[in-house]
Design a protein that fits this description.
By secondary structure, this protein is of the alpha/beta class. It folds into 3 domains: 235 residues, 3-Layer(aba) Sandwich (Rossmann fold); 164 residues, Beta Barrel (Ribosomal Protein L25, Chain P); 115 residues, Ribosomal Protein L25, Chain P (Beta Barrel). It contains 14 helices and 27 strands. The protein binds one RNA strand of 75 nucleotides through helix 6, strand 6, helix 8, strand 11 and helix 13.
RNA sequence: UACCCGGUGGUGUAAUUGGCAACACAGAAGGUUUUGGUCCUUCUAUUCCAGGUUCGAGUCCUGGCCGGGUAGCCA
């Protein structure tokens, strides 16, 4: 293991960066960027890109810019700019002074466009959007040249200036690059560089009514910022020739674009469009709903930044599409939470237990370990008394063979407290078990028997008189199918939404040490899972979100027996 | 039926760049345990196919097959 760890393997992008540093291609500089469009919330797929770009910069002693690619005012909002910054910071990355906006470069971009026009490499086109599409040809057929392709430089300059001045309505003209209408790569068939959009921009206001297209803008943004490695996702592979063409024609600083495969995860969707749909149609309660694969949602759910970073590390980087098993994410989560989360006892579905031979009114404080994985976390005192709550599912009146927990006449351990034996089961008129009576062995205080006898199970519990009430929200996958996109004709991804993805439990009982738990703080509820204090939680109304269950071999055993 | 990219266990990735196919997750079995957690041990492959080069091919070459991307005045 230590051997495998020491030989840190490089993904193909880090190999390129390593080679470039060795050859001095960029004078040893490493400058990357994370360039989101502020038109939605970041999700775990973005985290992969963020960790890649910021991670490479950190590992190679370079820097990573946070740059908002805000070239389309009709879709972008300030709210998203803020959430994105918060998310990147929360994930643990720091862009230092290097916060940029594509819109800050609109003027130099415009000047470069003028330069291209003067060089005869760009022209103003009066075709409508529909006509442009028809002239472009198809995947198998070449396009036709626009009738406006051969305007004079003077006419183009004049028209382009008047486009900027606002003389023409939306959609009436575009500025296009003059490349090759027969090019097999459709992106090279005289792509649009500017469109007219009389729309207010969240940063530049009404200063502009022409806005640059992605292909024109992005390379220039990279060039201005002296990016060395412009890392993007696979769908931009076909755009690289155009990225290169613009920069070559202009003769400016020219970064290298490198593409990698975006992340897919089982049981979830990963496109901004679909996530927006879930929010807008009310399938979830906002972008930060704990069921969402958004960074905000995962934060609220209780994921730690370290767990997400580790996940992004272990999934690797590649050039082919793949779908990562959700369980790998949960593994990274548990691995981190196990080391860092204080243990606490909480009962989700309480069952009252009375210890008949325990003195009325007596309270003992039991020494409980806060985190067996972290000695420095110390211990705490948990109050124990005659009336307790245990978990309903920890008792069975007629237990199957492999059930080790409480049953009539069986002795089990109450964690950090005593061995108890169930002596009586009390039911209501409908036959539901509503209360248990037990006896305890005073000699087993702390949980060990002096005579060395063993018990098969240890149960968590809370003292009824000391317990705090809480609401606990249990979450499951948002979709019932590993691949939500795999649907019948006429259906869409919402067809497999899981109707039981949220189960809210009230009347849960938690130990009193949780009284002042901070919002977003994380705990392990012993034997149950990891839980996080919801931001809406207060001392009057405590709310916990279940982040993830503990691995549960008993649950697996039950499934086997049922099937 | 155009162009570009890609195919390694159930899943995600490695393979010192032509030299014993390795790691993790998942699954199965067992051990330890005051969490049925953690931890520890063990078990699972025609490297898409067919040729070729070579002492030797996951890696190089040729041909096929399969998958993904691309016809926004989105990014």
């Amino acid at each position: 293991m230590s051997n495998g760890e020491s030989v840190e393997r490089l993904d193909f992008i880090r190999q390129i960066v390593t080679e470039d540093c060795a050859s001095g291609k960029w004078d040893g500089r490493v400058v990357t960027r994370f360039p989101p469009e502020p038109n939605g919330y970041l999700h775990i797929g973005h985290a992969k890109s963020i960790c890649l770009n910021f991670g490479i910069a950190a590992e190679f002693g370079g820097r990573c810019h946070l740059r908002f690619d805000d070239t389309n005012p009709t879709k972008e909002e300030e709210e998203y700019v803020e959430s994105i910054q918060n998310n990147v910071r929360w994930l643990g990355w720091d862009w230092g002074e290097h916060l940029y906006f594509g819109s800050d470069y609109f003027e130099p971009m415009y000047q470069w466009a003028v330069q291209l026009i003067k060089a005869g490499k760009a022209y103003v086109c009066d075709l409508t959007a529909e006509q442009t599409r028809q002239y472009r040809g198809t995947l198998t057929q070449p396009g036709r040249e626009s009738p406006y392709r051969h305007r004079t430089v003077e006419e183009n300059l004049d028209l382009f200036e008047r486009m900027r001045a606002g003389e023409f309505p939306d959609g009436s003209r575009t500025l296009r690059a003059k490349i090759d209408m027969a090019h097999p790569n459709l992106n090279m068939r005289d792509p649009v560089m500017y469109r007219i959009l009389h729309a207010s921009h969240h940063r530049t206001g009404d200063a502009w009514c022409i806005y640059p297209m992605y292909d024109w803008a992005h390379g220039l943004e990279d060039s201005i910022e002296s990016i060395t490695h412009s890392i993007c996702t696979l769908e931009f592979e076909n755009h690289r020739p155009l990225y290169d063409w613009f920069l070559d024609q202009l003769g400016v600083y020219h970064p290298q674009q490198i593409e990698f495969a975006r992340l897919n995860l089982t049981y979830t969707v990963m496109s901004k469009r679909k996530l927006l749909r879930l929010v807008q149609d009310g399938h979830v309660n906002g972008w930060d709903d704990p069921r969402m694969p958004t960074i905000s949602g995962m934060r609220r759910r209780g994921y730690s930044p370290a767990a997400i970073r580790e996940f992004c590390r272990v999934i690797g980087v590649n050039k082919f599409n793949s779908t990562v098993d959700f369980q790998l994410l949960e593994h990274c989560l548990r691995q981190d939470l196990n080391k860092t989360s204080p243990r606490v006892m909480a009962v989700l579905r309480p069952l009252k237990v009375v210890i008949d031979n325990y003195p009325d009114g007596q309270v003992e404080y039991m020494n409980a370990i806060n985190n067996p994985e972290e000695e420095s976390a110390g211990t705490r005192q948990a109050p124990f008394s005659k009336v307790l709550y245990i978990e309903q599912e920890d008792f069975m009146e007629d237990p199957p063979k492999k059930f080790f927990r409480m049953a009539p006449g069986r002795e089990v351990r109450l964690r950090y407290a005593y061995f108890v034996t169930c002596t009586e089961v009390i039911k209501d008129a409908d036959g539901n078990i509503i209360e248990l009576h037990c006896t305890y062995d005073p000699a087993t205080r702390g949980g060990d028997a002096p005579d060395g006898r063993k018990v098969k199970a240890t149960l968590h519990w809370v003292s009824a008189a000391h317990a705090l009430d809480a609401e606990v929200r249990l979450y499951d996958h948002l979709f019932t199918q590993a691949n939500p996109e795999d649907v019948e004709e006429g259906q869409d991804f919402t067809a497999h939404l899981n109707p039981n993805s949220l189960e809210a439990l009230t009347g849960c009982k938690v130990e009193p040490s949780l009284r002042d738990a901070e919002p977003l703080s994380r705990y392990q509820f012993e034997r149950l899972g990891y839980f996080c204090v919801d931001p809406d939680s207060s001392s009057r109304r405590m709310i916990f979100n279940r982040t993830v269950t503990l691995r549960d071999t008993w649950a697996k055993e039950q499934q086997k027996q049922n099937s």
